[in-house]
C-alpha cells in the first residue's frame, strides 16, 4: 500500500473513533487523582507567591480579588467532584471560615489544601466502571467521566486568571504545568 493511502486510511479510522471516544472518554480514577494532586501543588505555589497584602487585590471592578479567585479555583474542584459523584452539591464540608481565609494567607492555604484533599478523597471512592455510568450533570446527560473531566478544564482556566494579578503586583507567577 502506498504511504498516501496508509495515511488516508489512518485519518479515516481516526475520524471514526472520535464519536466513540466522546461517548466513552479514556479517563481513569488514577488519572483524575493525579490531575488534582497537580492542582493542589499549583494552587499552593500560587498562594505562596503572593504577598499577604495582595489577598484583597482586584485588578478591576467587578472581578474577584486574589483570595476569592484562589477560593474559586480550589473550591470548584470539590464542587465538581461532589456533583458528579452524588448528583448534588450538598454534603461538601466547610473547608474553613471565609471571613478568615479570604484575609489570611495561612488560612487560605489551609482552605485550598482541604478542598483539594476532599476532591482526592471523593475521587478515591469512584471505580473506573462507575466512570462509565451515564449521569445527569448540570442539566446534561453524559458519562460520569465526562462530568469529572471538568476538573481538567476549570481549574487551570480559573487559576490562570490570577497571573495578571501577580504581575500587576510585581510578582513573577510560579511556573504551571499540567503534569
Structure in words:
This protein is mainly α and 179 residues long. It has a single domain, classed as dinb family like domain (Four Helix Bundle (Hemerythrin (Met), subunit A), Up-down Bundle), CATH 1.20.120. It has nine helices and two strands; from the N terminus they run ααααααββααα. The protein has helices at residues 3-23, 29-49, 66-86, 98-101, 105-123, 128-131, 144-148, 150-160, 163-168; strands at residues 134-137, 140-143. A two-stranded antiparallel sheet has the order 1-2. Helix 2 runs antiparallel to helix 3 (66-86). It starts with a helix and ends in an 11-residue tail after the last helix. 28% of the residues are buried.
Helices, strands, pairings?
Elements: H1 3-23, H2 29-49, H3 66-86, H4 98-101, H5 105-123, H6 128-131, E1 134-137, E2 140-143, H7 144-148, H8 150-160, H9 163-168
Antiparallel strand pairs: 1-2
Share of helical residues: 55-70%
- Helix and strand composition category: mainly alpha
Q: Please report the total strand number as a whole number.
A: 2
What is the strand content? under 5%
The CATH superfamily is identified as dinb family like domain
The name of the CATH topology is Four Helix Bundle (Hemerythrin (Met), subunit A)
The helix/strand order is HHHHHHEEHHH
Distance between the termini: 39 Å
The overall number of domains is 1
On the 0-100 scale, what is the average pLDDT? 87
**Uncertain parts:** 6-21
